[in-house]
Amino acid sequence: MRQKSHDLQYLEVLYQRGVLTIDEEKEYWKSLRGYQGEVQCDQLCDYFLCTEFAMMDDVTLQLGKSVTQIDKLIAEEKVLWNIDIKNYQGNYRYENSCWTVNENIPE
């Protein structure tokens, strides 16, 4: 079962106590939406993939000083699928080798 990050747990407690700064509250809502998106992805994978594949969540890899985190890693025989989960809202489109969000090119 996926666990909330330590940062999200910390911000959640501060939010419940009503002591977040404006920036911290924005970070809280962003982290919460991200966690909810990960949980929804987990539910979809469990429903559609069942036990056919081995799945790992929140895999952290480090090589030297470089660290990366994989939201979901799915393994099937000789194939690994690396899934980076986002829970953004808006009209996203990939067209002409460029992403747009709500008809604008993101910065």
Total number of helices? 2
Query: Biggest sheet, in brief?
Result: 3 strands, antiparallel
The span between the termini is 35 Å
Low-confidence stretches: none
Order of helices and strands: HHEEEEE
Spatial order of the strands forming the largest sheet = 1-2-3
Structural class: alpha+beta
Using only C-alpha atoms, the radius of gyration works out to 17 Å
User: What percent of residues adopt helix (DSSP H or I)?
Assistant: 25-40%
Beta-strand share of residues: 25-35%
Average pLDDT for all residues: 88
Shape: globular
Let me know the number of strands. Answer: 5
Characterization of this structure:
This protein is α+β, with helices and mostly antiparallel strands and 107 residues long. It is 37% helix and 32% strand. The chain is built from two helices and five strands. The chain has helices spanning 6-17, 22-49, and strands at residues 54-63, 66-76, 79-83, 92-95, 98-101. The strands form two sheets. The chain has a three-stranded antiparallel sheet, with no helix packed on it. α1 packs across α2 (22-49). The longest helix is centred in the first third of the chain and has 28 residues, at 22-49. The protein is globular, with a radius of gyration of 17 Å. The termini are far apart. The model has no long low-confidence stretch (mean pLDDT 88).
Key descriptive features of the protein:
107 residues, alpha+beta, three-stranded antiparallel β-sheet, two-stranded antiparallel ribbon
Layout of secondary structure:
Elements: H1 6-17, H2 22-49, E1 54-63, E2 66-76, E3 79-83, E4 92-95, E5 98-101
Antiparallel strand pairs: 1-2, 2-3, 4-5
Helix pairs in contact: 1-2
